[in-house]
Amino acid sequence: MMLQAHLFSLCLLILYLTTGYGQEGKFSGPLKPMKLSIFEGQEPSQIIFQFKVNSPAVSFELTGETDNTFKIEPDGLLYLIKPLDRETRSIYNLQVAALDAHGAIVEGPVPVTIEVKDINDNRPTFLQPKYEGSVRQNSRPGSQELDPTKNPSYSLVVSVKDMGGQTENSFSDSTSVDITVMENIWKAPQPVEIVENSTDPHPIRITQVQWNDPGAQYSLFEKEKRPTFPFSIDQEGYIYVTQPLDREEKDSYVFYALAKDEHGKPLSYPLEIRVKVKDINDNPPTCPSKVTVFEVQENEILGSNIGTLSARDMDEENTVNSILEYRIVAQTPQIPMDGLFLVQTYSGVFQLAKRSLKKQDTPHYNLTVQVSDKDFKTLCAVQINVIDINDQIPIFRKSDYGNLTIPENTKIGSIILTIQATDADEPFTGSSKILYRITQGDSEGRLGVDTDPHTNAGYVTVKKPLDFETAAVSNIIFKAENPEPLVPGVAYNASSFAKFTLIVTNVNEAPVFSQYVFQARVSEDVATGTKVGNVTAKDPEGLDIRYSLRGDTRGWLKIDPVTGEIFSAAPLDREAESVYRVKVVATEVGGSSLSAVSDFHLTLMDVNDNPPRLAKEYTGLFLCHPLSASGSLIFQATDDDWQSFRGPQFTFSLGSESLQKDWEVLKINGTHARLSTKHTNFEEGVYDIPIRINDGGRPPLEGTVSLPVTFCTCVEGRCFRPAARLPGIPAMGTAVGILLTTLLVIGIILAVVFIRMKTNKGKDNVQSARASEVQPLRS
């Protein structure tokens, strides 16, 4: 037995080594919880994992759901002792513990989960050896091609294959399926016709729909949302009309039938139901109006069409129910005879039948016309008015209205003359209405004639301004005519013409400029005295004109008073005013000295006459002292000259070559540049840096500006300037010198004062002593 155990361990070791299980970390490792996977169906003695522990552990113990399937060796080899079957058991929960030489647990137990991985070792099988089913034609997508009349049934063989049929190791099974094709009875019925205004009891069954299986719930719906829906359906699929229909109200209906299951879900597509309402003759003809009026001229020839009576019938068009017949049943008055008119039976066209009419016989006729269909008759009233023919021409009461004198400034719209003609045709008709037209003497259309609709008087009015200078005297000829054409054989003659002479008197008018605004363009650098433009004006009376300027606030211009030529009177400056606007006054010489005013706009074109300069005053530029690195400042230049659409294009350089070792200027864009230090060794103080700026114009102009830069101590990012550094206050050294000098002067003054005081005191003592010596003698 000992030998067999050693041989088995040796075999496991060889299998362990040859299968790669001896690789550290992949199939071996310390004792800890883990999850391992093993394919089902493997041969026994398959090594799963090797656990490793340290002393004093000398062996292992396996517990849990081993099912006599797993075993562990003293050296930690966990292996199978019989094949696994995932369909029988897919998960094994084990515990592994490490034991010492006395069998005591020194490490663990730890959980080890074995997951059995599936392999394809079971073939698919059908639950039945044979299946039967049915399908209805048109009941679902793809079934439209089925036709029970051609192929009522199908026998199919259905196969199933696992693993998607993609490998040679997949299994398969098959069975037979018998399918019966059934007719689909869910289909739209034929269109239905319903006679309108039926007197039969309602509801009336009109058609039926039927679902393929019992138990369906039926409903109707329409796309048109009408106040009433005169149809219903029962649960057997029968469709009813619920009330009488009126074809004249609606001649057809389209709605839909829907079948649903017990859950309210539609079983299939809706079926379209079409209902046509069949007409009956239930409407009498109607007249187009209470009285239909026609007109006929009194000289109308026989057979002429007078008009058409168009009666209506609400029944269906182009059927026997709506065919109408017309017949005249009465004529009033019967003068000069009855039957003067006839009407075509089916078209309603009226014609003159027997003779031409005369208005003096009667001005109008009243006819009664019977309009009938096959069941109904209606009487319509027709009135035929006899119209007078235009056989009379307009005649002026007088042919010459003499002379008419008016001033040329007469207001437009003024009535200057009334003319009158008469016409003997019937009043207030196109035959008697008079239109007046000027045929000669007014080619400019300055006059017009308006007709009074009640009296036919003609009012001659001013339509355009009159002008003495172009038309002082005009011989005007009028013609009076009718809007209706004259009958053949009648023509207008001299009686329809009249005349008068229009005399326009002169009125002194102000001069007129040829333009409302005069414009000119010159360069701003033109020499004084250069002609920059001219204006022109004319006086309607032909008087001479004198020109002058108004609003020349800058004194830049002067004008020739006779010719209107305008000259520069002083240097021009576009930068001061790019468009110079003044007023030009034209005054007539003599007469009333009337004047007119126009505008003169002089646009000044730019020349490059302004050197570049700084865009603003830079007084607060500073750099913090001491510099830790090179510093830089940005500044901007500008130019008072006009800039093109590209904007200014300045170039920048240092104004002194001696500064190039300390400073440099770099261009950023056409207007901005950067001033930078080249080192950090600058003292505190203010540096005035000269910058040369060139505008690149034609000709180019250059300007030198001074950019003050202060190097100062910074406090919280701001330049700190001690009082000693402020302008107007001396520096520290200077202040100390002044203070010492002041103290020295004060000391000298005090010394002199003390010396003098001492000297004076000595003199006083001598005098006192002498006085004391003399006093006794006096006493």
Characterization of this structure:
This protein starts with a helix and ends with a helix. It has 779 residues and is mostly beta strands. The longest helix has 47 residues, at 732-778. The strands form 14 sheets. Strands 44, 46, 49, 50 and 51 form a five-stranded mixed sheet that branches. A four-stranded mixed sheet has the order 1-3-6-5, covered by helices on one side. It has a four-stranded mixed sheet with strand order 2-8-7-4, with no helix packed on it. It contains two helices and 51 strands. It is flat and about 160 Å long. Helices cover 8% and strands 41% of the residues. 18% of the residues are buried. A hairpin with a 7-residue loop joins strand 49 and strand 50 (702-715). The chain has seven domains: 2-117, Cadherins (Immunoglobulin-like); 130-182, no CATH class; 192-278, Cadherins (Immunoglobulin-like, Sandwich), CATH 2.60.40.60; 291-387, Cadherins (Immunoglobulin-like); 395-505, Sandwich (Immunoglobulin-like); 512-605, Immunoglobulin-like (Sandwich); 613-725, Immunoglobulin-like.
Q: What is the topological layout?
A:
Layout (H helix, E strand, L loop, with lengths): L1 H17 L9 E3 L3 E6 L7 E6 L6 E6 L5 E3 L4 E4 L10 E9 L5 E13 L12 E7 L16 E9 L10 E11 L9 E4 L8 E5 L8 E5 L9 E3 L4 E4 L10 E9 L10 E8 L12 E7 L7 E4 L16 E8 L8 E3 L5 E4 L11 E9 L4 E11 L7 E2 L3 E8 L7 E8 L12 E6 L6 E5 L5 E6 L10 E9 L15 E9 L6 E2 L3 E7 L7 E4 L2 E2 L6 E6 L6 E3 L5 E4 L10 E10 L6 E11 L7 E2 L7 E3 L7 E7 L12 E4 L8 E5 L4 E6 L7 E10 L7 E14 L2 E3 L11 H47 L1
Parallel strand pairs: 1-3, 2-8, 9-11, 12-18, 19-25, 27-33, 35-42, 44-50
Antiparallel strand pairs: 3-6, 4-7, 5-6, 7-8, 10-11, 13-16, 14-17, 15-16, 17-18, 20-23, 21-24, 22-23, 24-25, 26-28, 28-31, 29-32, 30-31, 32-33, 34-37, 36-40, 38-41, 39-40, 41-42, 43-45, 45-48, 46-49, 47-48, 49-50, 50-51
